[in-house]
């Protein structure tokens, strides 16, 4: 029996890396999966592997309108969301003395701020 049969999931950063691996596993376990990522070409490639139990929403997790569009799409297409994986994240390394406020804000914005606002947007938009 598939553990996630009939479940609906949304995964930010689901077009590559760990997020894509999670999406593959969820689909194999029976879930319908929405993936979000910034690059349409990577989303298209991911969908070609994930198959018919997945959809992609192009967007940037740092933009509230893009998050709202993700959850509105989930709500419109499936009516609910059972599993949220706020997976988007980046790694940009620099020597300590080279880290600027802009560099820090960029990384913190995606890895921390966007995670919080992804969960907040989901709680406001999906019933």
UniProtKB/TrEMBL annotation:
Q: Which residues cross the membrane?
A: none
Pfam families (UniProt xref): adh_short (PF00106)
- The yes or no answer to whether the keyword Oxidoreductase is present is yes
> What CDD domains does the entry give?
SDR_c (cd05233)
Q: Which InterPro entries match?
A: SDR_fam
Q: Which UniProt keywords apply?
A: Oxidoreductase
- Tell me if Oxidoreductase is a UniProt keyword of this record: yes
Q: Which family does it belong to?
A: Belongs to the short-chain dehydrogenases/reductases (SDR) family.
What the entry lists under PANTHER family is as follows:
5-KETO-D-GLUCONATE 5-REDUCTASE (PTHR43669), ALCOHOL DEHYDROGENASE, PUTATIVE (AFU_ORTHOLOGUE AFUA_3G03445)-RELATED (PTHR43669:SF3)
Q: What is this protein called?
A: SDR family NAD(P)-dependent oxidoreductase
Species of the source: Rahnella ecdela
Taxonomic lineage is: Bacteria, Pseudomonadati, Pseudomonadota, Gammaproteobacteria, Enterobacterales
């Amino acid at each position: 029996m598939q553990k996630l049969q009939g479940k609906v999931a949304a995964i930010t950063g689901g077009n590559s890396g760990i997020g894509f691996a999670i999406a593959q596993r969820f689909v194999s376990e029976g879930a319908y999966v929405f993936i979000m990522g910034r690059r349409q070409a990577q989303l298209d490639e991911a969908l070609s592997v994930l198959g018919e139990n997945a959809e992609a929403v192009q967007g940037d997790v740092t933009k509230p309108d893009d998050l709202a569009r993700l959850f509105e799409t989930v709500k419109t297409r499936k009516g609910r969301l059972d599993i949220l994986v706020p997976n988007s994240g980046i790694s940009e390394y620099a020597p300590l003395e080279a880290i600027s406020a802009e560099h820090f804000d960029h990384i913190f914005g995606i890895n921390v701020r966007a995670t919080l606002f992804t969960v907040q947007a989901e709680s406001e938009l999906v019933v």
